[in-house]
Every structure is written in C-alpha cells, then in structure tokens.
Amino acid sequence: MFYFILLSRNNETSSTTNYASYASYASYYYAYIAASVSFFGFAFYLIGRRESGFIRSFAYVPMAKAILLTGQLIAYSFISGLYCASLYLLTRPLFGAYDLIEFLNILARFYICFLMFCSVALALVRLPLTFQNANTSFSVLLFLMLATLIASRLTTYEIVRIANQFNPLTLASEIMQMERTPLIGAGSFAVILLYFMMWASARLMPVNPVWSRY
User: Among 1, 26, 124, 139, which residue has the least CB neighbours within 10 Å?
Assistant: First the structure.
C-alpha cells in the first residue's frame, strides 16, 4: 500500500525523492504498526492470560504481575523493532540507498510510539474484555483512530479536527516526523507514562477471568 499510494501521488522519479522528506506520509504507517503490536500483541496476550486463569493461578500478587508485565514488554519491544526494521527495509529502496543514521532515528521514534501505545494498551487491559471480544474491540478502536487521522487530512469539518486532537495516532505520527517533535521530550513523556501505567497495572490489573464468578 505504501508503494501504490506513493507512486500514484508522486510525479517525481524515485531517485530524486528523499525518504526523510516524505516522513509526514510514512509516519502514518510506522504509527499504525506501533499501535497494532501494542494492542494485538502486548495487550491481547495479557487479556488471554487473564481469561485462561494463568494470572489467577500464578501471577496474582503485585510482584508476580510486575514480572509478567516486564517480560511481555521486553518480548514485544523486540518484536516491534523487527516490524519497524522490516518496514524500513521494504520502503527505503524506493528512495535510494539505506542510511544507518536515518534508520536509528526512525527506530528510536518508533519505539517511543510503541511505549506510548503500550500505556494505552494497559488501560484497555483493565476493561472487562474477554479473549473473544477483545480482538473485535481493538480492531474497531484502531480503525476509528486511523479513519479519524485520514479524515482530518481530507476534510475541514470542525468535529473531525477536534476528535483528531485526542487521537493517539496523531501524536504518534507527529513523533515519527523527523523534526516536528523533540526526541528527548517525547521519549521522557512516554517512559514516565508507561512507568506509571506499569505500576498501576501491577497493583490493579484484574486477576480473575471475566467469566469467573469468584
């Protein structure tokens, strides 16, 4: 989709177009992948462990839940990095040779977006979602976020603009743009927010499955 839409809108040859100059376009894809891994990987797995009874049996105290959350965060951090690298390797050749410094910059910003969405995911884990309806809920939420982001670029309706200001994908796409958001400031915000959500989840994350009466 990146190739098709880019080629349909760009009249310049690929050799004269700079990848970084198209960051405002590519940022949507990186932000979307960061959100997808956070929701359908990090959060979805935690809901699955709760609904299977694993947390009630083996991780019912705050320390055990903290270890579980940390282990999942480390695992999906690695997976998210692979997704980011894959997207870069697939899309960068259209603009010329690979650039290590550019990739590291993109990877750092992508990981900040991933941590931010993990904080949102931890809030979703608190909801009374079963393993079956969590997939649908996450799909609808991600679709609405993406639709709002795209709609804000195509219309001037005030309600769309206001809704987009509360859209996490908007903030993530801003972070992904090379010179729009300071890297240190965005990273500090994401780490502090995630630390608070991890601390709260280790103490308040539900132990019993939704279907359980105990």
Answer: 1
Is the confidence at residue 204, as pLDDT, over 60?
yes
CA geometry: angle 156, 114, 106, nearest 5 deg:
80
CA distance 190 to 175: 11
Q: Which range, of 106-110, 178-182, 184-188, 206-210, averages the lowest pLDDT?
A: 178-182
Q: Given phi > 0 = left and psi -120 to 50 = alpha, else beta, which region is 53?
A: left
- Residue 40 DSSP symbol: I
Sign of the torsion formed by the C-alpha atoms of 188, 190, 192 and 198: negative
pLDDT at 71 over 60: yes
Q: CA 205, 208, 213, 214 torsion: positive or negative? A: negative
- Does the pLDDT at position 121 exceed 80? yes
Q: Where are the domains of the chain?
A: 25-204
Work out the average pLDDT over 14-31. 66
Nearest to 188 by CA among 115, 120, 117, 101: 115
Helix 183-204 and helix 62-91, axial crossing angle in degrees, nearest 10: 140
Buried b (16+ CB within 10 A) or exposed e, 153-167: eeeeeeebeebbeeb
